[in-house]
Amino acid sequence: QAIRSGDADAVRAVVTADLWVAEGGGLERSFAEYASHHLPSDMAFAAETTTTTVDQRVIAGEHMAVVISEFQLHGEFRGKSIHSRLVETLVLAHQGQNWRARHVHWSSAPLDGEHTH
């Protein structure tokens, strides 16, 4: 929601400073690196597309949890029609009273018709 709303401070509040973000074969090794590279375009993309949750699973432990989500994305971004499947893996770390994202991995592929796999 913080990315969708375009609020970089809200994103910073729910991640660790040493956040790793993997997307499209690339890796950013801190929140500062992510914020200076892909966060602005991720916020713009999220604001222009609709995300529908298809499935979500949680693997929880005492100090760490993994959330694996599957979404469908629809909309238009920079003149291109978007009809994609997105898989998101979040690794959350329990810090004090809060859970914070320690690692995010996004993988997406276009959907042809209603084909999903």
Shape: globular
SS-based class: alpha+beta
Q: What is the averaged pLDDT score? A: 95
Helix/strand order: HHEEHHEEEE
**Major pleated sheet:** 6 strands, mixed
Q: How many angstroms separate the termini?
A: 26 Å
Going across the biggest sheet, name each strand in turn: 2-1-6-5-4-3
Counting DSSP E segments of at least 2 residues, the number of strands comes to 6
Helix tally equals: 4
Proportion in helices:
10-25%
How much of the sequence lies in strands comes to over 45%
Rg over CA atoms, rounded to whole Å, is: 15 Å
Q: How do the helices and strands line up, and which of them pair or pack?
A:
Elements: H1 2-5, H2 8-13, E1 15-23, E2 26-28, H3 31-37, H4 39-48, E3 49-60, E4 64-77, E5 80-95, E6 98-110
Parallel strand pairs: 1-6
Antiparallel strand pairs: 1-2, 3-4, 4-5, 5-6
